[in-house]
Amino acid sequence: MIASLANSPAFKWYAFAAMAVGTFASVVDHGSVGVALPTIATHFHTDIPSVQWLMIGFAMTIIALLLPMGRLADLIGAKRVYLIGSVVIIAGSISAGTSTELAVLIFSRILQGTGAAMTQGTGMAIIIATFPPAERGKAIGLIMTMVGTGAVAGPALGGFLVDAFGWRAVFFATVPMVVASIVMTMAVLPGVSELRRVRSVNQPRFDWLGAFLSSSALLALLLAISNAHRVGWTSPPILAATTAFVALLAVFVWWELRYASPMLELRLFRRRNFFLGVTANYLMFMGSSAVLFMTPFYLQNVLGYKPSVAGLAVVPGAMCMAILGPLSGRLSDRFGWRKFTVAGLILSSTGIAILSRLSADSTLWHVIPALMLTSSGMGTFYSPNSSSILSAVERESHGVISGLVNLIRNTGNVVSIAVATAIVTATMGSLGYEPSLDAVRNGSTEGVGSAFTTGLRYAYITMMGSLLAALFLSALPTHREGQARPVQAPAAETVLRPATSQAEED
Questions:
Q1: Domain extent listing, the chain
Q2: Environment class of residue 101 by beta-carbon count within 10 Å: exposed (0-12), middle (13-18) or buried (19+)?
Q3: pLDDT in tens, 93-129
Q4: Residue 359 needs a FRET pair 20 to 30 A away by CA distance; which of 34, 181, 269, 496 works?
């Protein structure tokens, strides 16, 4: 039965359905847990900064492990890593839902993050491998649809579950969706035994030192940028973390350039498509991600809207992302990447330019269209950009590169929020108010909302500069812009033992 499915013309859709359920579950989990944080804080008699480690620990774990897990998928098979990661997510979800102490709950979220790092990049790699190279943009666009749909459903589902069953239900709700993904994956994709590579003296080995160095460097960076706005950019802990990041990164680069089977082949950055695509990707997310964090905060704490209204305000934008992702991906397969990455960046830049004109008495009709433009740009940009990056590498490296693409997105999200928060709080301090977002949340000082909004405008102008830099890079001509060279290979083989293709170089 599995063999017949693998040879079926509809095999790619079966594989996509299996991965789509897992992707949807991951995004929904993130959004629903965020809604549950205040209730969790009340249950454990603690404050919001403490329970925020449920989100921070989860995100840091994913970012630190995406590259190693992507490389592991290239070596032992994407299906195997995906299934193990799904089981780890289930274990973490059950542990979180039954936790009686906050420390155990945070550890459970880190366990969930480990599983998510194993499924995020590999799920994307499996979908890309089962679609023909000429439909790569469409495949990535379909992933964006699931991300956008999950982003809409997550907060709504989380709010319902917390109100109806309590905060524990948020974690248990993930389990049936992940179980369904496991069952579908095992039913559709070839067996694990078929994915095993024939061992030889030339078989690549897993780069344990490279994995340790990259994970440690990323953790040092994340700890620095996540805490700098609270303790100061020149404080000893932040300087120590920054120094550790630079030192670990230098050693990582030195090691990867010398190791016979590096975790990440750094020489790929010599390829035009790869370098331009990766850099523009990072600048795009660094220049837009903070919008989804700061704008709802502005709506609730400056304009005084209820959380439900603030949540609904981002829904139209998420829907735009879900619709435009696959459309942009499909069109970019036919007409080339550049015009769609450029169009996406123009849309997002326009949206953030509108947001940079916010005042302390703006209306929803100022905010919602701007959010729709920003999210539309992200949806239009992501699929063709990811497709251009993957076109520059051989198929046997798609696992680690898919992990890299997800790593860039996650890191850009964290850096964007940290930079925007630093700009906002610094502006508030310069105007004579407490340099803290809590001061806005409490709203005890007259004029603090206006000071926050001024800082928000400065932050959005800075972010627009990042988007314009990405726009410049994306407008540069790329090699063989358009479709990747088709490689004929059976669908089942592309998942476990992908055929080698000639990378597009300068």
A1: 2-190+263-496, 207-262
A2: exposed
A3: 999 999 989 889 999 999 999 998 888 878 877 887 7
A4: 34
- Buried/exposed code over 207-240 (b: 16+ C-beta within 10 A; e: otherwise): beebbebbbbbbbbbbbbbbbbbeeeeeeeebee
**Which class for 407: exposed (0-12), middle (13-18), buried (19 or more C-beta within 10 A)?**
buried
DSSP states of 491-505: HHHHHHSPPP-----
Tokens of 370: 């701007």
Q: What size, in residues, is the chain?
A: 506
Name residues whose C-beta falls within 8 Å of residue 438's C-beta, 6 or more positions apart in sequence: none
The fold of the 2-190+263-496 domain, in CATH, is Growth Hormone; Chain: A; (1.20.1250)
* Closest of 19, 23, 15, 18 to residue 131, by C-alpha: 15
At 74, list the tokens: 């290239």
List the one residue out of 118, 397, 410 whose CA is nearest residue 265.
397
Integer Cα distance of 94 and 156 in angstroms: 21
Q: Indicate yes or no: pTM above 0.70.
A: yes
Contact call for residues 209 and 131 (beta carbons, < 8 A): no
Mean pLDDT by runs of 10 across the 506 residues of the chain is: 56 84 83 78 77 80 83 82 93 92 91 89 80 78 77 74 86 91 84 40 67 85 77 85 92 87 81 88 88 79 76 80 84 85 94 91 88 90 85 72 79 82 85 75 71 90 93 80 41 39 35
The token pair that represents 148 in the structure block: 């956008």
Cβ–Cβ under 8 Å, residues 66 and 406:
yes
CB atoms within 10 A of CB 333: 26
Sequence-distant (≥ 6) Cβ neighbours of residue 333 within 8 angstroms? 134, 135, 136, 137, 138, 387, 483
